[in-house]
Amino acid sequence: MIFRIYGQKDSTIYEQTTRRAQNTGVDEILEVTKFYDEETEETFIGNSRILVQFDISNISQSIVDGDISSNAKFYLNLTSTEENEVQSEYQLDIHQVSQSWTEGIGQFHYNPIVTNGCSWQFRNDSFKWSTGSFATGTTGSSIINDGGGTWYTSSVNNTQYSQTFNKSTSDLKVEISEYVRDWLSGSRVNSGFIIKRPDTQESGSIRYGSSKFFSNETHTIYVPTLEARWDDSSFVTASLQELTNENIVMYPKNLLSEYKEESIAKIRIVGRDRYPTRTFSTSSAYSTIKYLPQTTYYQVRDAETNLVLIPFDTTYTKVSCDSTGNYFDFRFNTLQAERFYKFEFRVDRSGRKEYFDNGYIFKVVR
Q1: For residues 284 and 120, what is the distance between their CA atoms, to the nearest angstrom?
Q2: Triad 241, 242, 248: Cα angle to 5°
Q3: Is-contact 24 216, C-beta < 8 A?
Q4: Which residues pair with 355 in a beta bridge?
Q5: The dihedral of CA 244, 250, 252, 253: what is its sign?
Q6: CB count, 10 Å around CB of 86?
Q7: Are the C-beta atoms of 152 and 138 separated by less than 8 Å?
Q8: Which of 14, 99, 301, 323 has the most CB within a 10 Å radius?
């Protein structure tokens, strides 16, 4: 299963002297940018970094309750809105923030600027980020002006995470499992993530342009998410027959038109021969339940934007089977409420991928 939660708070902090105390907590865009003066575009004037935090209490309780595997992997996702003058290849580092911070109510274009909340200098309305004598295992850095956040240099077990971007990647999709496990275990306090360029790229002479992502305030489907992924599949065919015909139909037989956002449902999947062999029998051949191959998968697509939210995955979106047929369990609070979505299916067999999408649309409601 792939289960997603949405951001609790986020902000961009700016190093430029004129913006080092500015809060941008309600901007629709988050950005990692290397800035130069507007007049000559030659003089470096500072970097920007992203702060983002998620409330993982629901994930923690679900693990305790056994609804999420304790071996789940975790991924951070930010959707790109644009890239400007970026290098053909560059890197962003992701660290655990080591001090608490407040989101604030400012935006980049506000004049005068808003200083309530986090900024390059301040982590909240009253306290600055540490700039020296860092706590054990933590650090910070700046080029022009002191501040810029503080973070742990690695997870408790010395794992570090980063993502390399190139011409074919613009979205941030990076595993951060050990960071989340530190928070779940209580080894560290969850103060979110800081996303920045490596120190050498922030301070060097190479221009790295601007990487911009949608924030929580975007009012679209593209908000930051934290994913938990684990294999929840089970495949027990009992006395069912295997569906071996190459020409088949497939559909969810108990899909409702609406689901409450806190619902958890077992979606039953039916596969059958498109043209059953004619036999003399008192029952219809169409009513015979056969099981689909173990290499059957589902995905979820936003019906309005056509964006795939939960993709086909050969580990995490497998269709299960029990004595009554195929199914998969689905937690609808992984999707934003008051939107329409659709399930799609894929069967891999005989070296081919077969897709089934016949308008299996549903709505998630509050």
Answers
A1: 70
A2: 120
A3: no
A4: 346
A5: negative
A6: 20
A7: yes
A8: 14
The three-state secondary structure class of 200 is helix
The CA-to-CA distance between both ends of the chain, in Å, stands at: 22
Q: Specify the amino acid at residue 281.
A: S
As a whole number of angstroms, the distance between CA 131 and CA 242 comes to 65
Whether the model clears a pTM of 0.70, i.e. scores above it, the answer is yes
- DSSP result, 281-302: -SS-GGG--EEPPS-EEEEEEE
Q: Kindly tell me if the per-residue pLDDT of 283 is higher than 90.
A: no
Residue 299, pLDDT above cutoff 90: yes
Candidates 253, 177, 194, 213; CA nearest to 84 is 213
Tens of pLDDT, residues 113-150: 999 999 999 999 999 999 999 999 999 999 999 999 99
Tokens standing for 326? 């195929």
Q: What is the pLDDT of residues 222-251, one digit of tens each?
A: 999 999 999 999 999 999 999 999 899 999
* Burial environment of residue 12 by CB neighbours within 10 A (0 to 12, 13 to 18, 19 or more): buried
- Residue 301 CA to residue 303 CA, distance in Å, equals 6
Tokens 């299960």, residue located: 320
Q: Calculate ∠ Cα 316-190-71, nearest 5°.
A: 30
Map tokens 């002297």 to a residue: 17
**Residue 258 in contact with residue 363, Cβ under 8 Å?**
yes
- Cβ contact 309:341 at 8 Å: yes
Q: What is the rounded distance in angstroms from the CA atom of residue 185 to the CA atom of residue 262?
A: 25
User: In the structure encoding, which two tokens stand for residue 85, read together?
Assistant: 């003058």
